[in-house]
Amino acid sequence: MADDVELVIAGGGLVGMLLGVACARAGLVVGIVDRHDPAAMLHEQFDGRTSAIAYGSRNVLDGIGLWANIARCAQPILDIRVADDSSSLFLHYDHLELENDTPLGYIVENRVLRRALIECISSMPNSRLVAPMEVNSVSPTPHCVTATLSDGRQVKAQLVAAADGAGSPLRRAAGIGTVDWRYPQASIVTAVRHELPHHGVAIEHFLPAGPFAILPMTGLRSSIVWSERAELVPRLIELSNVAFGAELGARFGDFFGAVEPIGLRSTYPLGLRLAKAYIAPRLALIGEAAHVIHPIAGQGLNLGIRDVAVLAELLIDARRLGLDIGDETLLSRYQQWRRFDALALAAVTDGLNRLFSNAFGPLQLARRLGLAAVDRMPPVKRMLMRDAMGLLGDLPRLARGEPL
């Protein structure tokens, strides 16, 4: 990396690289630092997960020139069905109820996203991915910030974006506290092959231990995000293929015929973590460095993508005017713009998980009647669909489908 850049991004995960691509496309000189070898990042063993890309997030990816390289591997979500345990009552979101028949979103394998990002970063002369490497510390001054790398090099920039994950060393070093708690659940993430086509249908099946999501992938495949009691997860992960398949089948239902587990089985603890501030002098938090939410609605990456769209818009507009991209006023605007969205979504996902993760009879009946009632209220359903698509609220230009 050159000694001087405009923006240092600490963390080359999906959110960090997205910010790098967005800013470098607009002409900023960007250095991305990540502790993993880029070659290792592209292996399925590195990350076998998929991500739900809301329609608004698809707009962001398209606006920074990435969607064309991802679209052929993306499975459109055409319907979403939300059911409470074994109830015959359910809430059905159908893309045909929307204008222009647009998909509700897409399911994309993380390795596909990562490959497109790395290829894009590598092709731009004003961006560089420095890895394996870490940002050990940042030292802000009134006019710049110096990032010290793990090999001792020092890089000067106007701003450092911390995309270094939920445990964010840079957030802790800046003295930014968090509000957090753990759920008594862990998530099992895997994939299945099934006998019948899914027709682009995503299913959110609420069980007493937690939600069980079936997300359509390309071909006769679906991604499974299974929230289960934390103490049971280690034993489930270690089951034989036959026994694990039986456990999956018992929860999966007969929607798509016989199912067969394929690929990796990964497990992740579940919790909620919100940074008390998103900024410090010449430092901005993005992605999981700023917020971690329950995966119940599949919105974690979309929240980070909106961070990217907002911060990129503010940085690019400031640079075009010849202003300091690390200015305190700009960073305060970023924090003000993003915190409400993250707080609201954290509250919704936490509330849904608590509401549905129990088998109390009267509450269960009320939930089922509530889902059925919403299903019969088209205006309410359309509003909820647009919200899930990331098309409501104070959106940045990229999320609205407008150029930077």
Gist?
This protein has about 400 residues and is an alpha+beta fold. The protein has a domain at about 5-75 and about 110-180 and about 270-355 and about 395-400: FAD/NAD(P)-binding domain (3-Layer(bba) Sandwich).
Describe this structure in words.
This protein has 404 residues and is an alpha+beta fold. It has a domain at 7-74 and 108-179 and 272-357 and 393-400: 3-Layer(bba) Sandwich (FAD/NAD(P)-binding domain). The chain is 35% helix and 30% strand. It has helices at 14-25, 38-41, 55-63, 67-70, 110-123, 169-173, 233-237, 241-252, 300-320, 328-356, 361-375, 378-388; strands at residues 7-10, 30-33, 50-54, 75-77, 79-84, 90-94, 105-109, 127-130, 135-140, 145-149, 154-157, 159-162, 178-194, 201-207, 210-217, 221-229, 259-275, 279-280, 283-285, 291-292. A hairpin with a 3-residue loop joins strand 15 (210-217) and strand 16 (221-229). Helix 1 (14-25) runs parallel beside helix 5 (110-123), helix 1 packs parallel to helix 9 (300-320) and helix 9 packs antiparallel against helix 10. 44% of the residues are buried. The model has no long low-confidence stretch (mean pLDDT 93).
List keywords for this structure.
404 residues, alpha+beta, FAD/NAD(P)-binding domain, 6-stranded mixed sheet, 20 strands
CATH class (first level) name of the domain at 7-74 and 108-179 and 272-357 and 393-400: Alpha Beta
**Share of residues in strands:** 25-35%
Radius of gyration: 21 Å
Distance between the termini: 26 Å
CATH topology annotation of the domain at 7-74 and 108-179 and 272-357 and 393-400: FAD/NAD(P)-binding domain
Count of runs of 4 or more consecutive helical residues = 12
Shape: globular
How is the biggest beta sheet arranged? Answer: 8 strands, mixed
**Helix coverage percent:** 25-40%
pLDDT averaged over residues: 93
CATH architecture of the domain at 7-74 and 108-179 and 272-357 and 393-400: 3-Layer(bba) Sandwich
